[in-house]
Amino acid sequence: MSRRCELTGKKANNGMSISHSHRRTKRLQHANLQTKRVWWPSGNRWVKLKLSTKAIKTLDSKGIEAMAKEAGINLNNY
């Protein structure tokens, strides 16, 4: 599986590491991804998703149904 949030689509960002002498080397800034079990009330079961921490906070306010519909994913497959 890729390092991507399953609900928001967040992924790594290209950036530069800059040393004290200002040499620049390429690096990746990864999203803060967590594997989370979320209760799905209408499916009456737990769903295991790989989510960014921002998505977990949004999930508390919006709910899993609304976010899954927005992302266009079917929770029966998880």
Summed up:
This protein is an alpha+beta fold. The protein is built from two helices and four strands.
Structure characterization notes:
This protein is an alpha+beta fold. Helices cover 23% and strands 36% of the residues. It has one domain (13-77): Roll (Ribosomal Protein L24e, Chain: T), CATH 2.30.170. Strand 3 and strand 4 form a beta hairpin. The longest helix has 10 residues, at 53-62.
Q: Cα-atom Rg, whole angstroms?
A: 16 Å
Look at the helices and sheets and give the structural class: alpha+beta
Q: What share of residues is helical?
A: 10-25%
Number of helical stretches of at least 4 residues? 2
CATH class: Mainly Beta
Q: In this structure, how is the largest beta sheet organized?
A: 2 strands, antiparallel
* First-to-last CA distance: 13 Å
Low-confidence stretches: none
The CATH superfamily turns out to be Ribosomal protein L28/L24
Q: In order across it, which strands form the biggest sheet? A: 1-2
How does CATH name the architecture? Answer: Roll
SSE pattern: EEEEHH
Overall mean confidence score, pLDDT:
95
What overall geometry do the principal axes of the alpha carbons give? elongated
DSSP strand tally: 4
- The figure for the number of domains is 1
